[in-house]
């Protein structure tokens, strides 16, 4: 039963995501695909996966223990903080902090996590801003 509830929550999330994509305004200069295509694809994949969980639930599902659920909750809090701090700190610092925490919680040593988070942030910034020319959130230092 719990799998079906989880699948129903996923299906509602997919519907909400698709509904959110409906309100994205398209510019007359956008390409043929438009800005709504990627959210629609994500919503479709989430809906199909949720339907699969609803239609074929596990007979004896194994849910994570309370400490694991707290780890998931902490990761969600970090991602919410990331979204809120992105305009304040800028892409590079906010991404470095979030990536550092997430890699640390995945089992990397703290120093390695900090190095990995910083390199990930700078690498993504270089690809998306410097190579592809996309605009990313600027922090107090201008990047």
Automatic annotation (TrEMBL):
Entry keyword annotation includes Endoplasmic reticulum: no
Keyword Manganese on entry: no
Sorted UniProt keywords: Membrane, Transmembrane, Transmembrane helix
Pfam families named in the record: TctB (PF07331)
Endpoints of the signal sequence: none
Domain DUF1468: 5-136
Protein name according to UniProt: Tripartite tricarboxylate transporter TctB family protein
Classification of source organism: Bacteria, Pseudomonadati, Pseudomonadota, Alphaproteobacteria, Hyphomicrobiales
